[in-house]
Amino acid sequence: MTQQTLIAGYQNEISFQRHMLHNLQRWQSMFSMVVGIGVLMLYFFRQQSIWLFGAGIALSVIGVLMILVIGYGIYHGKKNLQRVVLRYERETQPTGVK
């Protein structure tokens, strides 16, 4: 494996992981909207319909749980990305500086 191929592989991996972290952040935003809808359902249907009130509770709970799970994935994804960047920087330094 040549140095050029190694550098290209690291750059592709770093770009891919950044893109995936961005996607996870979008999913987290979407689930925060789900929680908001659930809270609105709790507020507006607290006396009219027990089914819609229950659906609001379910949406809120599921949304909060998903936000936490995705946040956990983002946290570990950022740590992994830092490790890959550090290895990339170590590999691309001139020989003798390692």
From TrEMBL:
Keywords: Membrane, Sugar transport, Transmembrane, Transmembrane helix, Transport. The chain crosses the membrane at residues 27-45, 51-75. This is PTS sugar transporter.
